[in-house]
Design goal:
The chain has two domains: 226 residues, Rossmann fold; 122 residues, Jelly Rolls (Sandwich), CATH 2.60.120. It is built from nine helices and 17 strands. Strands 2, 5, 6, 8, 11 and 13 form a six-stranded antiparallel sheet that branches. Strands 3, 4, 7, 9, 10 and 12 form a six-stranded antiparallel sheet that branches. Helix 3 packs across helix 9 and helix 4 crosses helix 6. It is globular, with a radius of gyration of 20 Å. The two termini are 19 Å apart. 46% of the residues are buried. Pfam families: Lipase_GDSL_2. Keywords: Hydrolase. InterPro entries: SGNH_hydro, SGNH_hydro_sf.
Length: 378
């Protein structure tokens, strides 16, 4: 297409980025304490962890070990939400009181922030399993300072003594939490004074293995993760820099299709997002992925987005992946009423036990260096 001609290169220092398979190979050889930090940027496919992300994380952890939950965003929680680290804004057990939830498109890891008044609370509950050790060795709260002082308190169990947090400063800030001594815990954070604006938590244990941070937002399009605004970009990079990342999996485009975003505009947003990621974590391996098409009506098929994203990714030596090859070319075959249903009745989201499992397997193979169908274009 004519509008991808003469794509200018992303100006970055030359840094050798180790592939995820190289890093996982080290974990598989039992290198003590080594961690692979994976950040997943996406829309509801990834934000709704039950579609594929929980399955993928569990499988990686079983083989390579689990290094902690990573980013626990107060928009959609963790990659293991619903099983090992429970949090949701739709349940008052976990999110209650006077909170102002921002619109999408904020300079935040998962595209939203939450601002609370006195008495507002958040709870994250941990439940250990044979594969997932929920012990915490490090924990920090990420927030946006407004130049005023706010106070919060927290405890890891209802029987614990409250610990105080003083939140001050301007711009992106972090404050360390005293970690729990138990593996199964229920962290409760409450606003005491002021009106703090929060991004989320970052947590790790003291073990080696994989750590998957979910930087995804339901309903988000590419324009929600990139703004042509220097102040916005500065804030986004400042907070994302506090979330360690060795590998990025960026899968956006489904909502661009749903909103009728022109492929050339989608490409500009993706170029800007990748540039910011490279500026924050220049040694990280960055992968861009397009999801499969479905039977829903749209102005642009996913193949139109592929026709602009793939050539640009190749020009930048960025691995490009397309889920269409895994699902096959016949949209009706894997529709909810087709002979092998993998997409739900909404004609958008995968059925977890079929389409979701296929996506989890695709990403697993991508990460461990067993090329799924359609080896990455570089």
């Amino acid at each position: 297409m004519v509008y991808i001609d003469h794509v200018p290169p992303v100006s970055m220092p030359v840094i050798e980025a180790r592939s995820s398979s190289e890093r996982l190979s080290g974990l598989g050889k039992g290198k003590s304490g080594e961690v692979l930090n994976i950040s997943v940027i996406g829309d509801s496919y990834s934000a709704g962890q039950d579609f594929y992300l929980n399955d993928l994380t569990q499988r990686l952890a079983k083989v390579f070990g689990f290094a902690g939950p990573g980013y626990v965003g107060f928009n959609h929680g963790t990659a293991l939400g619903g099983t090992n680290f429970k949090y949701t804004r739709s349940n008052k057990q976990y999110f209650g009181g006077d909170w102002d939830v921002s619109s999408l498109g904020q300079a935040s890891p998962d595209s939203r922030t939450v601002t609370g008044q006195a008495g507002a609370y958040i709870e994250v509950d941990a439940k250990q399993t044979a594969v997932i050790n929920t012990s915490i060795g490090q924990a920090k709260l990420l927030y946006l300072g407004n130049g005023k002082t706010s106070e919060m308190r927290y405890r890891w169990a209802s029987s614990d003594t409250w610990q105080s947090l003083t939140m001050a400063g301007s711009g992106v800030q972090e404050v360390q939490l005293i970690v729990p001594t138990r593996d199964d815990w229920a962290l409760r954070l409450e606003v005491v004074k002021g009106a703090p604006t929060l991004f989320g938590l970052w947590m790790a244990n003291d073990r080696g293995g994989v750590r998957v941070s979910k930087l995804a937002a339901s309903g988000a399009a590419s324009a929600d993760f990139y703004k042509n605004d220097s102040q916005w970009q500065t804030q986004w990079k400042a907070v994302v820099s506090k979330i360690p990342a060795d590998v990025y999996l960026i899968m956006l485009g489904g909502n661009d299709q749903g909103f009728g975003v022109k492929p050339k505009d989608y490409l500009e947003n993706m170029k800007g997002l990748v540039r910011m990621v490279r500026e924050v974590h220049p040694a990280a391996s960055v992968n861009v992925i397009l999801r499969e098409d479905t039977t829903r009506s749209s102005a642009y098929p996913m193949s139109d987005y592929a026709q602009v994203l793939e050539p640009w990714a190749r020009s930048q030596n960025i691995p490009y992946w397309n889920l269409q090859c895994a699902f096959g070319s016949d949209f009706k075959r894997y529709a909810s009423n087709g002979p092998t249903p993998m997409i739900g009745p909404d004609k958008i989201h995968p059925i977890p036990g079929s389409g979701g499992r296929l996506i989890a397997d695709y990403f697993y193979r991508l990460l461990v260096g067993e090329p799924p169908c359609g080896a990455a274009s570089k």
